[in-house]
Amino acid sequence: MIHVQVSAEDRETIKVLRREHPNPRVRKRLDVLWFKCQNHPHWEICETVGISQGTMRNYFRLYQTGGLEKLLEFNFHTPVSDLEQHRGLLAAYFREQPPRTINEAIFKIEELTGLKRSHGVVGPFLHSLGMAPRKVGSIPSKADPVEQEEFRINKLEPRLDEAKRGERAVFFVDAAHFVFGPFLGFLWSFERLFVRKTGTYHINRLTLCSSRSRFRSRSTGPAEHGVRP
């Protein structure tokens, strides 16, 4: 039997902290000591708190050797991956050559550093770099952002203002492209990546709408438009 003498001051502290301490493991330690102060038998303490006799005795020894301060202390061991020493190299490489899958990242990491690590290590490491699997987007091959902005400011917005005043009718035409072309998948990257479109095979459905008319749509197939560059 281990005899533990708990001061009245420590009892008051334990009474509060066993409910309010943010660390659940510390709260469990304090519960053990609190039940000990209430003269509960050891088997009942272990069964109530859910610990073994050996763990209970360790808690008592912590209090005997360092008091309540030692019982509240927790020194967690945080292992550091060997990949951390290559963080800069790998971040720079993957920014230029983003991998498609974790398997590809594992292969490249081994090639660059000589370290072969599992999915469970490489996946969290990529996330710690700020990477995530992101869908690759596409932009038209002939898109000109400067020209688009000039069109919006100098042509589109003035016409919309005229339409609001009833001086003009503005129609919007949109097309749903059912494209037979390369499939853009996912890449592990730091931000979403975009690539320019190449030649594709289109089946279009055009839609015309106006604030004064109903929707009108028309399908055009490959026989009409063929291969779009």
Terminal Cα span: 87 Å
Q: What fraction strand? A: 15-25%
Biggest sheet character: 4 strands, antiparallel
| Outline | elongated
Summarize the structure.
The protein is α+β, with helices and mostly antiparallel strands and 229 residues long. It contains 9 helices and 8 strands.
Question: Could you explain the architecture of this structure?
Answer:
With 229 residues, the protein is an alpha+beta fold. It has nine helices and eight strands. It has helices at 8-20, 24-37, 42-49, 53-72, 87-96, 102-113, 119-129, 145-164, 222-225; strands spanning 132-135, 137-139, 171-180, 186-189, 194-196, 200-210, 213-220, 227-228. The strands form three sheets. Strands 3, 6, 7 and 8 form a four-stranded antiparallel beta sheet that branches. A two-stranded antiparallel ribbon has the order 1-4. Helix 1 (8-20) packs antiparallel against helix 2 (24-37) and helix 2 crosses helix 4 (53-72). The model is unreliable at 219-229 (pLDDT under 50).
Provide the fold topology.
Layout: H1 8-20, H2 24-37, H3 42-49, H4 53-72, H5 87-96, H6 102-113, H7 119-129, E1 132-135, E2 137-139, H8 145-164, E3 171-180, E4 186-189, E5 194-196, E6 200-210, E7 213-220, H9 222-225, E8 227-228
Parallel strand pairs: 2-5
Antiparallel strand pairs: 1-4, 3-6, 6-7, 6-8
Helix pairs in contact: 1-2, 2-3, 2-4
